[in-house]
User: What shape does this take?
Amino acid sequence: MLLQVKDLDISYGERLTVAGASLELDKGEIMSIVGESGSGKTTVIRAIMGCLPGAGRVSAGSITFDGKDVLQNTPEQWRHMYGSEMSMIFQDSGNMINPIRRIGAQFIDYIQAHQPDKSKSQAYEMACQMLTNVRLPNPENIMNCYPFELSGGMRQRVGIAMAMIFSPKILLADEPTSALDVTTQAQIIRQIVDIRNEYNVAVIIVTHNIGVASYVSNKIMVMQGGKVVEYGKREDVIGNPQHEYTKQLLRAVPIIGGKCYYA
Ligand SMILES: Nc1ncnc2c1ncn2[C@@H]1O[C@H](COP(=O)(O)OP(=O)(O)OP(=O)(O)O)[C@@H](O)[C@H]1O
Ligand SMILES: [Mg+2]
Assistant: This one.
């Protein structure tokens, strides 16, 4: 088991926000977290990444990643883990990358920050290779661009390339497509699946769209009001939902992949 989250409680200050969340993920598995706004999806992802904002803290339960109890991680251990073992893709990678620096300069800095032995030209080569892997044409041209010169879909591909550069074991993607138009959304989701197939990286995707979830995931977790109301294999959740809220979500997406899973 790559990631095991058990009976996790997360609080902001005195307020219990997520209660009793559990999940398990193997290498190469894709899990989606779906649920309404404020249900705690981002909070769960951030707890796994060890970066809860403000007064956020894990108040009970455990998170084991690759055999390690990450709740015991020191800031130094987290720094080592980011990028090389766990990576994150944001809603709009434009927020992660500095708007006033060229992609190339940032990508090279990022590589050298983690691998100081790499020369600038080695880092440049690595970056171009990864940009090609995420199907960005003319990587040299992309490296030379400012973030605002790229489309939202291209920026997301850059985000995926940066997240994957050190071949992490898990990729956490918080609504990676919600800032994109529908066609581009599908392309980015497909790109994430391709990356999983190529690198056998485990993926957690937070999404509002259970249609997206059912299309790509091995597992689905449904959250409502800070609780996991449904969790299981894709076939089970889609084919035989137990919770009324899951049924509601599925009713809103009657046609999935041309097949009616839930009438
Ligand atoms: N930094 C914070 N300080 C205090 N409370 C917070 C903080 N971040 C989130 N919360 C609260 O935690 C709850 C869950 O928020 P979270 O961002 O995890 O929801 P979400 O499911 O990701 O929603 P969305 O779909 O809108 O992104 C909300 O009630 C929110 O107000
Ligand atoms: Mg969120």
About this structure: The chain is about 40% helix and 25% strand. The mean pLDDT is 92.
